[in-house]
Amino acid sequence: MAFTGSNGRTQTSLAEINITPLVDVVLVLLVIFMLAAPVLQSGIEVAVPKTRTVREITEQRLVVTIAKDQQVFLGDKPVNIHELPYQLRQGGIDPAHQVIYLRADERVPFGAFASVMDAVKQAGITNISIVTQPLEAKSDK
């Protein structure tokens, strides 16, 4: 759109959109989601036992969690212990090659732990890794 100014010259209006604030907001949101994603991945609070030998988990695997109230979760979804073998077979992966990570609260009785292990083995999965935390190193003074 053109209009005539007070000095008689024709001027055009600026129709440009400043996208700098939009880019700033998008980058801030990206950083927030990158920081929040690992926290949201494992929403079940479990105090796993501490051991001396701990191997860092680098690949994404299926995780079965036993909370301190003995509730069983597959990923982040609660599951009945009797339906666990069926749910584990749903992935379409050969059970002989599937790896399961088992997280259990350190206060869970051994009987509940053994029941979940049995349910995983009923699904045909024999490669089960137990998730632990490393012991804190004691400083000598």
- CATH class of the largest domain, anyone? Alpha Beta
Could you report the average pLDDT, rounded to the nearest whole number? 78
Shape: elongated
Number of domains: 2
* SSE string: EEHEEEEHEHEE
Beta-sheet strand percentage?
15-25%
Give the strand tally. Answer: 9
Secondary-structure-derived class: alpha/beta
Low-confidence stretches: none
Number of helices: 3
Radius of gyration: 27 Å
CATH architecture of the largest domain: 2-Layer Sandwich
Spatially, the strands of the biggest sheet line up as 6-5-4-7-8
Classify the fold: give the CATH topology of the largest domain.
Nucleotidyltransferase, domain 5
Helix content: 25-40%
Largest sheet: 5 strands, mixed
Distance between the termini: 79 Å
Keywords:
Nucleotidyltransferase, domain 5; alpha/beta; 21% strand; elongated; 141 residues; 9 strands; 29% helix; two-stranded antiparallel sheet; single chain; 5-stranded mixed beta sheet
Summarize the structure in short.
With 141 residues, the protein is α/β, with parallel strands linked by helices.
Give structural notes.
The longest helix has 22 residues, at 20-41. The model has no long low-confidence stretch (mean pLDDT 78). The strands form three sheets. Strands 6-5-4-7-8 form a five-stranded mixed beta sheet. It has a two-stranded antiparallel ribbon with strand order 1-2. It has a two-stranded parallel ribbon with strand order 3-9. 29% of the residues lie in helices and 21% in strands. The protein has two domains: 2-41, no CATH class; 50-134, 2-Layer Sandwich (Nucleotidyltransferase, domain 5), CATH 3.30.420.270. 8% of the residues are buried. A hairpin with a 5-residue loop joins strand 4 (62-66) and strand 5 (72-74). It is elongated, with a radius of gyration of 27 Å. With 141 residues, it is of the alpha/beta class.
